[in-house]
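Local shape tokens:
==================
===
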Amino acid sequence: MDFPYVKLSSGEIRLLEFLDDSGMRCRLDRYPLNGAPAYIALSYAWVAASNQKGRSPDTTYEIISDGLVVTTQQNLHDALRHLAKHVYRRKCKFWVDFICINQMDVREQGNQVSMMTEIYTRSNAVYAWLGLPHDEGNVPLAVALMRLFYKTLGFQLKGKGTVQVTEGMSPDTPGFPNERDPDSIRAWGGIAELLTQSYWERILDISRSNNAG
């Protein structure tokens, strides 16, 4: 990346400001983390998009920051295109590691990685980008089905990150797979696709690294 970054002072981070809702035009500014304006942080996987939509996995894209070109891989490009309008509407800044951290400066990378937990904790929200779905029409069906399960099955938190279903599932349970119902098939297909996104592999890798440390 040939983008001319201005060096960060101790305790500083960079934040993006979208200049419109396209996600392709922005500016970068530096702020002290403990005095940063409202911002949203992005969590995503540094991989080729799970669903190529007819594209080559090697395709790269360009966004314009401060009038200069920044090259990104397609999964981040997809995230920016789809999420920018929400960030822009909320009048928030945006933090994404690939752009806000100088990837050519090893020392800065180390310093910023050490601040990562606080960067996410201090954000007003964290958007998790799972990737583009194969069929976007399945997404609302899958989300509605998961909400239905949460309401009818009775979930209970058990310890750190563990969820236990307090009521069993049977063919009479609302939302139970029904091969005669096209919407049921699409909803379950959407859930299956959601759970097999490469994003979850990234989360698992982070968890393993933290446990190893």
